[in-house]
Amino acid sequence: MQIHVLKSKIHRVSVTDANLNYVGSITIDEDLMDAAGIIEYERVSIVNNNNGERFDTYVITGERGSGTICLNGAAARKVQPGDVIIILAYAILDAEEAKSFKPTVVFPDTATNKIH
């Protein structure tokens, strides 16, 4: 049996922009992506701590060191710049492998989206 488990989590980053006139996705600073082990075009879940919205999208690589967290396309309707969100990525693992798997969790500074 295979199960879905949390692979990576970027805990509490601030939305820097919301761009309705874009095809779709979330743009994430490449430093945050690397720290969390998230790759471009990977599916992620977004949890908005300010309004309770939860939705899925895919990742686009943002400028390294910029602190960028930008929701694009329709997802831009679910956030406001300054909202605090959590970004979750999942993996499908064998049930036995999942028992010992530990996710990568990143805790950036919410004011700057930089890693401590």
Estimated share of beta-strand residues: over 45%
Nearest-integer average pLDDT? 97
Computed structural class? mainly beta
**CATH C-level label:** Mainly Beta
Q: Provide the number of structural domains.
A: 1
Q: Nutshell version of this structure?
A:
The protein has 116 residues and is mainly beta. The chain contains two helices and eight strands; from the N terminus they run βββαββββαβ. The chain has a single domain, classed as Barwin-like endoglucanases.
Would you mind describing this structure in some detail?
With 116 residues, this protein is mostly beta strands. It has one domain: Barwin-like endoglucanases. Helix content is 11%, strand content 47%. The protein has two helices and eight strands, in the order βββαββββαβ. Strands 2-6-3-5-4-7-1-8 form an eight-stranded mixed beta sheet. Strand 4 and strand 5 form a beta hairpin. The longest helix has 7 residues. The radius of gyration is 14 Å and the shape is globular.
